[in-house]
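Replying to the earlier thread about multi-chain prediction with a worked example.

Input:
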Amino acid sequence: MDSIDVLYPSPVCSYLEQELDKRFNVLKLWTAPNKTQFIKDNSTSIRAIVGHGGVGADAELIESLPKLEIISSFSVGMDKVDLKKCKEKGVRVTNTPDVLTDDVADIAIGLALAVMRRLCESDRYVRSGMWKKGDYKLTTKFTGKTVEKPELKYKYYPTVVELASKCDVLVVACALTEETHHVINREVIDALGPKGVLINIGRGHHVDEPELVSALLEGRLGGAGLDVYQNEPEVPEQLFGLENVVLLPHAGSGTTETRCAMADLDIANLEAHFLNKPLLTPVV
Amino acid sequence: MNQSSIMACSKHHLPELLVIHNPYSVFTRFESDFSIKFHILKAWESPLPLDQFLTTHARSVRSMFSYFNFTQVNADLLRLLPALELVVTPTVGVNHIDLTECRRRGISVANAGAAYSEDVADCAVGLFIDVHRRLSAADRYIRQRLWGIGTPDDRRNYPLTGRKLGGKRVGIVGLGSIGYEVAKRLEAFGCSISYNSRREKPCVSYPFYSDVCELAANNDSLIICCALTDQTHHLINKQVLSALGREGVIVNVGRGAVIDEKELVRCLVHGEIRGAGLDVFEDEPHVPKVLFGLDNVVLSPHIAAFTPESFQTVSDVMVANLEAFFSDQPLLTSFIDD
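Result:
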């Protein structure tokens, strides 16, 4: 299979790169002095793309690669791949569901605990030498708080606003689609309220980010734990001075074990495709 | 009789409660919770030195409120309180109370019972997740404006990778009320639990290790939830940390001195264990400065127990113990050192 050209746009995982190198001819886009030219030069030989949550394939790219057969994303989110275009062109698409579920869920809980019990802020307090000057203040109890997320055995609410009004912690975990773009808007934030905490482990565009920032600065929202942002790696700097906010650099699936499992799944999907076997985790 | 006249004439008939250190900054409802039921002897308000205050005013006092470990209930203090029969403390730990001396004098001790258990367990889990997933380090990374530095193609990449929680083997040191709450929570993350305690618990299905070194050798993490006693002082020593190993994580929500702090710091600096989450230290509020520059440690200023909810619960528990004592009923949370 090492004659198969696979486009690898950005170096998201060294283990993935290593495994791709063993099996395919990997075209490392970021090493090219002129990326547009690089794609043009290889456009008739690229048969696969291995993207990730932040770098996918838009309609233009897909159109420009006549031999493209499969896109395997190093992510579960597919918002950066034009799935409609893929369907139209008969391009298969796979992602990495399930293997990262536990890690991302753990991050959601970790963020909620860190916000409510001020773990990061109090760590800063100790490191700055402030503890010698005085005790840290009380923080909010976590156990017993209402965390609502539409799930099988939990209570279902038909609208996000109603959900937000009935809970203390709101966790955003859905896929990003046209329908869920800015699903967390001013109305939802106001419903969550000055004691409410928003946790975003979905996509930055789920949240109206400027609205979120002003709500936090004005105290209209109690706190936020964010792993994703509208324009990564840019994070609104007005949040840096807030103690009721915890900021992570899109680290939801960032453990050694899970990144390896995601890479293995991408490789397995690619191998299955090129050996004419059923794909393991097809999206299209 | 109306409420205020009851208050006026019954103040002197209210049972006396000695309070040496001012509790009002933490127990903001001390007045409404305690003062209507007990006649508070406020030692901190007196111009007299403490021993004089006590010999003058506290000779017949039967109960006292120990304000955390600010009030060291030692032999010297107890000598000045000949009528004392009960000490209530808003702590779970009683290492600031001379239990031997109390036992000798027939003085009961009532602690916070399970009032803090949920909050301490939540914090322990928070620290556990933070160390494994590098939450505080990552938050720091962003606030220091380090995310995005680098070539445009790897701008999103973040160098500190975490470790998965699911499947980790967690050893609880001290399976009391707090330890048990921690165990239940971590089971939900897919961790498997075993423990070391003074003795095996018959109603618990987790595997028991009688030796803490063996517990460390058979686990990926240790969570310290035990009391500080002569037996547990420096229980977590060089041998135990070595048995835990290079990938090991330790979380301490018990007392600092349960761990040999110098040895722990050495292991963290040299990468001989993977990381630590510490809410308590040997000499609070002093924390070894060398830890401030490390990303593999999360530091917390002894806040695990402290939420407004838990303080109110503790307040209620202490009032209930005092009322039980003064009506010759059994204490609710009598500390029995077994």
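The first helix of chain B runs from residue 3 to 10.

Feel free to reuse this layout for your own posts.
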